[in-house]
């Protein structure tokens, strides 16, 4: 269990309905909990009968397409993470089917020595066509990615997502431990280019934090929020908020919606960070400071461009799809040198 308690409360909407998902709330800069938001989903009602009822409801939508799941030995107690040497991971991927993953999860409920099986971030529209006709969030029906996560008791290291996220607890119980983006320095983030699941992740074990190795984590705890979700509850997690996620029941199913508040043609900020590491980070200090000023003027606090004729502002004007395509082509040409 967690070795600490919550320090900061999170706004909660009791007896939430889909009408409570206003544009203002779906663009909030702080997390919001929506109690009971998806309580009428058939999946939620099936899961409340039993784990097997919930699994059977999911099975009826499966199209049999292969999925990639993950398996960890029981010794790691559901913590999907790096190995001790940080040169690999304590779990292994496996190509399987949704039905098999569900069977393995259910079989492990009464077997403490069984490996922990976990299905993470798998597109619902790809493997469960028809499911969202009966289990969906209308305000986010056009979200670019809607995923299912299923597993036994498990925990995923604190990480951030670039998109905004509405995470819906459909079966079982979930605990989210949240930190605002500015706690980056105090969370001891691991490698950017070698990660357990895509985003960079905190190296701190939240069950047994090593304060001698990670002393500033005590500062992060002064800003953390802990939220537990039951069947039917949901939480909005803004872009860049760090979140450590635990599945607390023997069988847990979460459905989440990811979207960004910018047009689809916009680039991915992590690509820009990687490019900046490639081209700016190792410059001499004076040059780095000069480029820091350029970024401040052209990116973070866009400078006045009234002195440039309108027809020559180019990418200094707000981007549209055509300019974005041209800029992307220019970058590709320069990177392929």
UniProtKB/TrEMBL annotation:
SUPFAM superfamilies assigned to the protein according to its UniProt record, in alphabetical order: Clavaminate synthase-like
SMART domains the record matches: JmjC (SM00558)
UniProt xrefs under Pfam families: Cupin_8
Regions annotated as coiled coil: none
PROSITE patterns attached to this UniProt entry: JMJC
InterPro entries according to UniProt: Cupin_8, JmjC_dom
JmjC domain boundaries: 81-274
Full protein name: Cupin-like domain-containing protein
Organism annotation: Aliiglaciecola litoralis
């Amino acid at each position: 269990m967690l070795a600490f308690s919550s320090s900061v409360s999170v706004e909660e909407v009791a007896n939430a309905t889909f009408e409570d998902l206003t544009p203002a709330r779906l663009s909030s800069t702080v997390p919001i909990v929506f109690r009971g938001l998806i309580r009428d989903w058939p999946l939620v009602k099936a899961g409340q009968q039993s784990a097997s009822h919930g699994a059977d409801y999911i099975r009826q939508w499966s199209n049999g397409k292969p999925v990639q799941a993950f398996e960890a030995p029981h010794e790691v107690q559901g913590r999907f993470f790096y190995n001790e040497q940080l040169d690999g991971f304590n779990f292994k991927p496996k190509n399987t089917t949704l039905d098999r993953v569900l069977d393995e999860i259910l079989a492990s409920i009464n077997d403490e020595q069984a490996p922990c099986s976990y299905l993470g971030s798998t597109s619902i529209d790809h493997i469960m066509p028809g499911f969202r006709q009966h289990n969906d969030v209308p305000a986010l029906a056009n979200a670019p990615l809607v995923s299912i996560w299923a597993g036994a008791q498990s925990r995923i290291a604190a990480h951030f997502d670039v998109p905004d996220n509405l995470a819906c607890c459909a079966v079982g119980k979930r605990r989210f431990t949240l930190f605002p983006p500015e706690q980056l320095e105090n969370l001891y983030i691991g490698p950017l280019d070698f990660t357990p699941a895509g985003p960079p992740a905190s190296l701190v074990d939240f069950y047994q934090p090593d304060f001698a190795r990670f002393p500033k984590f005590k500062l992060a705890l002064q800003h953390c929020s802990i939220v537990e979700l039951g069947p039917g509850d949901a939480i909005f997690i803004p872009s860049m908020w760090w979140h450590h996620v635990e599945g607390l029941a023997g069988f847990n199913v979460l459905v989440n919606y990811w979207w960004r508040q910018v047009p689809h043609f916009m680039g991915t900020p992590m690509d820009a960070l990687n490019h900046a590491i490639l081209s700016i980070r190792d410059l001499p200090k004076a040059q780095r400071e000069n480029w820091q000023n350029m970024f401040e003027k052209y990116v973070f606090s866009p400078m006045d461009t009234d002195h440039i004729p309108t027809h020559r502002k180019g990418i200094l004007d707000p981007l549209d799809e055509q300019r974005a395509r041209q800029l992307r082509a220019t970058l590709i040409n320069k990177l392929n040198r």
